[in-house]
Amino acid sequence: MSAAAHLMMLTRADRAGTWLSLLCAAHCMASPLLVTILPLVGLGFLVQEVTEGLFLAASVALAAASLCWGFRLHRRWRVLLFLVGALGFILVGRWMADGASERTLVVIGAGMLTAGHLLNRYLCSACAACHHGENDRHS
After folding, report:
1. Domains of the chain: total
2. Is 24 in contact with 59 (CB distance < 8 Å)?
3. Residues 60, 61, 62, 63: is their CA dihedral positive or negative?
């Protein structure tokens, strides 16, 4: 696979990861309200514990792959710090807190994943090597 194809895949993964992390945070914040509304319209599965776990697992897996790949490409430790910090907030929120504290910690973690993806995209936009691969693709 060419460097341009790798870069395109990283960009797509970051874009998807950004939206998935935002969706995860929004789901977590809205769950108390949605738990009463969604079952009335047949969408109760969206507020079940399994669905939240799937959102978190997919968000974290995509972030880990994308941010580790971004670190490998740009060698900026900040990207990995966002990932590690996010994992810390999410894990503490899920297994050591409950109620509003859990939601707050998980939302902060999802926000940090989003910020990590955005930082990764910024680093790609400012990187000469990334732009070189992009120019090769358009030539």
Report:
1. 1
2. yes
3. positive
